[in-house]
Amino acid sequence: MITREPQIFDEPTNVFQTAGRRLILACQGTGRALMMLLGAAVQTPFMFSRKNRQDVSQQLYQVGIKSLGVVSVVALFTGMILALQVGLELRRYGQETNIGMLVCISMLREMGPFMTGLVIAASVGSAIAAQMGTMTVGEEIAALDVMSINPLRYLMMPRLVALAIMMPLLTVYTNLLGILGGAMVGASQLGISWEAYFDNAFRYAENKDLYVGLFKAFLFGLIIVTVACYQGFTASEGAVGVGRATRRTVIVSFLLILIVGYFVTRLFYQ
Amino acid sequence: MKFRKQLFIETAVGLFSFAVIAALVMLTVVLSQETLFRKERPVEIVFEDAMGLRVGDAVNVRGVNIGKVKDIVLKRDGVHVMALLNNPLFLRDDYRIEVLSTSVLGGRYLSIHEGTPGKRPMRPQPPILQGHAAPDLMDTATRTIEDIRLALNDGILEDLKVTMAQVRKIATNVGEGVGTLGKLITDEAVYDDVQEITANLRGISEKLGRGEGTLGQLLMGDDQAFQDLAATLSAFREVSETIARGEGTLGKLITDEDVYDELQGLLQEGRAALDDIRENSPILTFTSVFFGVF
Predict the structure, then answer these.
(1) Domain count, chain B
(2) pLDDT tens for residues A248-263?
(3) Torsion (CA) B271, B276, B277, B279 in degrees, nearest 10
(4) Domain range holding A185?
(5) Is the residue at B141 inside a domain?
(6) Which residues span the domain enclosing B252?
(7) Which residues from chain A sit within 8 angstroms of residue B32, using beta carbons?
(8) Quick one: which of A8, A11, A262, B116 is 20 to 30 A from B31 by CA?
(9) Computed from CA positions of residues B24, B26, B30, B33, in that sequence, does the dihedral angle turn out positive or negative?
(10) What is the pLDDT of residue B9?
């Protein structure tokens, strides 16, 4: 199912043949990744079984609790940098009290899900790819197939559930810490009281900003787990292949997070 | 051991999830502009033009924030703005509600002026309050700039150009040393003269200050000089009064017409005698020379 015989192609004779083959392989890869995502998604009802429940809680712990340290630092400093950069410019016009609004809306709409996505892609996504890749090159995945154990249900589904749940939760956490970081900079460097900052921050932000951001985070979670599992399951050539799969996971996840983030914003804010 | 670890993992994940979900609920409530534990008073105001007021904008009474805009609905009779206030309003007959600019960069707020303290309070308060359009800062600025532009195009710009050309010409002349002012700046002789005049004036001023000379003595309050001057003036007044009264030769000459006539007759006769002498002088000269020879 997951494991396949390697495809053997003739050497391309010209540029067009090379480009065409790459295009076909890209389409094949995308289709296979999406089929894997669907395959894992249909297995989610089994997450409450005794075995899978343990795996899911283990993955929730890995993705959520173990990432809290990095996510906290990134979130706090993202808010602080936003507040400082915007506040210094706004101070020239006597408008520094509006940094609350700017930091809050930026964090809720874009920076919260985006920064969380980058951190999780770099830490959790790469770890998933490395683990899956090692299992693939060690033919453990093939062994699971032989034993009629669905690797999507056994390996991918718990990670999919964990990322789909934890990404929005971590994003809420990132948003709150980012807004708090902005308030700290506002109070310490721009002379804005905490009350004035929070009053301004929550005056103009809307629930739409919050929930569109959480929807983005959910999509980013799906992207990270799909890319990581796909790269892991298709790894080859031993340790080098595992390293390549890990690197590709981070790069492709970053790019997809940026592109999908733009289109979701475009969809909801026209 | 494995079971305990699994228990710890599940507890940690559950705790984190509950905490974040609680924060999410609170954030949702805050962003909905809802206040669960505080009584809010709804107020409806109708405007002809909301001037860009947005939901969530502040409501201020005498510069103090007392609430925020909850909803804005466009209706046939105008724009209905629903606001939620934390404090009760005590409006008077001449109350005024306006949409004002927060700053030149944008942003609006609802300003409520409750009315003059001496005026009659409104009881009961009408269900829908009337809002007024306030002059927009940007519109006013645009209009002012347009007025200035029109005024400039209306001849002022041309006048300014002419004036500036004249000023430039004067400056050029002065720079080239044309005219008194130019010479004063460029010609050293004129400058020396002016400096000398200034020095002289300073000398005179110093002398006056020291009380030297008649004027100086007078200025410094010298009694003798003052008395001399007063006596001279008194004598002069006496002479002029005597003349005015017609006393003395000069007085009679001025006031007595007979004397004047006599004097005029005498002058006429004298002039006639002089004319005779002038006419006879060649004859007399010739006769005296002729008889002088013999």
Answers:
(1) 3
(2) 999 999 999 999 999 9
(3) 120
(4) 29-268
(5) no
(6) 222-271
(7) 207
(8) A262
(9) positive
(10) 81
